Amino acid sequence: MAEKKDKKKRLIKRLKNKFRLVILNDTTFEEKLSFRLSPMNVFILFISGSFLLISLITILIAFTPLREFIPGYTDVSLRQNLTNMVLKVDSLENDLTVKQHYLNNLRLIIQGKLPSDTLLNDSALVPQYDQEARKISKEDSLFRDFVEKEDAFNISNEKAGKSFGLLSGTYFFTPLNGLVTGHFEPKKDHYGVDIVAPENEAIKATLKGVVIFAGWTSETGHVISLQHDNNLISTYKHNSVLMKEVGDVVKAGDAIAIIGNSGELTDGPHLHFELWYNGTALNPEEYINLK
């Protein structure tokens, strides 16, 4: 017991021993600076400096735009604002086209001519235009009937078309930025899209929701599925690492997995992404900008 106390005292004494750090002029050996240090002072200074450096880096990331480059900290409002701006620009273009058409017709009226739309609607003046318009309209109606009958047996359009009005106000977050190499082909039992991206890329939740499955299958490797509002389910397959567990609540844009090459049905690092609504597979490319 006494030996341990002696060792402890000697250790404390060594840590408190004073040393002098001297900086000399190499030519004249003139003393420029000197510091009295001890091992205890050096250790405390190192710990304090490390803590200060970590604090500064944390503040820099938390309160500057640098956090946008960290997976899971992406600002979802940025994509919503961008989508709103695109919709406004599209509306302005349509409004500009209508006004331009109105000005053209007004110019024709001032010149004493008939507007172009009047010529097509007045069969007494130019009957051949009216007959041609009737012919085109009839063929167009037959073509629309044909397309509707074909789409009635298409699993991707069976409910997606009816529900588009409900989902039109939903802003989907792009799960992964990359190259789409496999498209939605339900006839080939491919109910999603394949997106290729560099290794170690983070995969993000397309909407806020709850993790309902996070596990492994032999064919699709590490898989995670999220339950969203409006009976929507999104599924992410072939991951290398899953970052969430069943029951976790996630926000749109949160990192939930890392891109991988797991499972038998894969030939390289990519994400297989599926979107389901009321038990029906939707084409993600119709709702999400995956480019």
Q: Which CATH first-tier class of the largest domain would you pick?
A: Mainly Beta
How far apart, in Å, are the first and last alpha carbons? Answer: 72 Å
Q: Might you state the CATH topology name of the largest domain?
A: Glucose Permease (Domain IIA)
Mean pLDDT: 78
Helix content: 25-40%
Largest sheet: 10 strands, antiparallel
Number of helices: 6
CATH homologous group name of the largest domain = Glucose Permease (Domain IIA)
The assembly state of the depicted protein chains is single chain
> What is the chain-wise order of helices and strands?
HEEHHHHHEEEEEEEEEE
Backbone structural class: alpha+beta
User: How many beta-strand elements?
Assistant: 12
Q: Report strand %.
A: 15-25%
Large-scale geometry: elongated
**How many discrete structural domains?**
3
GO molecular function, one term: metalloendopeptidase activity
Keywords: Membrane, Signal, Transmembrane, Transmembrane helix
Pfam families: Peptidase_M23
Protein name: Peptidoglycan DD-metalloendopeptidase family protein
